[in-house]
From TrEMBL:
<comment type="similarity">
    <text>Belongs to the cation transport ATPase (P-type) (TC 3.A.3) family. Type IB subfamily.</text>
</comment>
<protein>
    <recommendedName>
        <fullName>Copper-exporting P-type ATPase</fullName>
    </recommendedName>
</protein>
<feature type="domain" description="HMA">
    <location>
        <begin position="3"/>
        <end position="66"/>
    </location>
</feature>
């Protein structure tokens, strides 16, 4: 089932960071869309990806993430 997962992201300071995090999230299997809001330090991810895989991808890109829900 498709669902939307909200993440809090720490460590982003510019639009380049936003792009890196979005790319990392979009590369996870099952992700249909990933949008990062720099001002809010959040990401909205839609699709069927497992939350743990999203956290792992963000960490591998060099940022910290947590599930908000
Ligand atoms: Mo902007 Mo983010 O130059 O790692 S891309 S700070």
């Amino acid at each position: 089932m498709t669902e939307t997962i909200r993440l809090s992201i720490a460590g982003m300071t510019c639009a380049g960071c936003v792009s890196s995090v979005e790319k990392a999230l979009q590369s996870v299997a099952g992700v249909t869309t990933a949008h990062v809001n720099l001002a809010e330090r959040t990401a909205l991810v839609a699709g069927t990806a497992a939350p743990e895989q999203l956290l792992k991808a963000v960490k591998q890109a060099g940022y910290e993430a947590a599930i908000m829900q």
